[in-house]
Design brief:
Distance between the termini: 77 Å
Helix content: 25-40%
CATH architecture of the largest domain: Beta Barrel
Order of helices and strands: HHHEEEEEHEEHE
Strand content: 15-25%
Number of helices: 5
CATH topology of the largest domain: Barwin-like endoglucanases
Number of strands: 8
Shape: elongated
CATH class of the largest domain: Mainly Beta
Strand order of the largest sheet: 3-7-4-6-5-8
């Protein structure tokens, strides 16, 4: 068997093995971080959050004993504005279908229309969850909408907590 014939046989084996591995990777995207068609349809709103929830120290959801107490949750707060490079091709429309405005936040854990306060940063101002973030973002991250890219950049990244108000 000549060297060239031997190498071409090895190349065929290499390509076949590569195709098999790629097929396996494509078949199991959740294991490797990709989204399947079913995952794209998933919405945190589909979670059954009808019973009242409270946040424990490590952000674990626990049933609440008191309906009047606000639930606190540690979060990372970031900011965004209505630019195509920061959002999608409809930068002024939120994931809930509403137009962006002051007081809109994005979060992947809380249902749409959940009202929250960010006392350390904004006192008693009420924000409403009406947008979503990239699916790889932490559920314990919020993204505040700002009218301009400069304002969003100036906000930066902050560690804080939110108070989830009863709806």
């Amino acid at each position: 068997m000549s060297y060239n014939h031997y190498m071409s046989q090895n190349n065929k084996k290499f390509y076949i093995i590569t195709l098999i591995i790629l097929g396996i990777l494509i078949s199991f995207p959740p294991v490797f971080g990709s989204k399947t068609a079913n995952q794209k349809k998933f919405s945190p709103d589909a979670l059954d959050l009808t019973n009242k929830l409270a946040m424990a120290e490590q952000n674990t959801l626990l049933p609440s004993n008191s309906q009047s107490e606000n639930k606190k949750m540690k979060v990372i707060a970031t900011a965004y504005s209505s630019n195509v490079w920061e959002t999608d091709d409809t930068p002024f429309i939120t994931a809930s279908g509403k137009t962006v405005r002051d007081g809109v936040i994005a979060n992947n854990l809380l249902p749409f229309n959940t009202r929250v306060k960010i006392p350390e940063l904004y006192g008693n101002k009420i924000f409403v969850v009406e947008d979503r973030m990239h699916y790889l973002k932490s559920p314990y991250q919020i993204d505040l909408w700002f009218p301009s890219h400069d304002q969003a950049t100036d906000f930066g990244v902050k560690k804080t907590y939110i108070e989830v108000l009863d709806n």
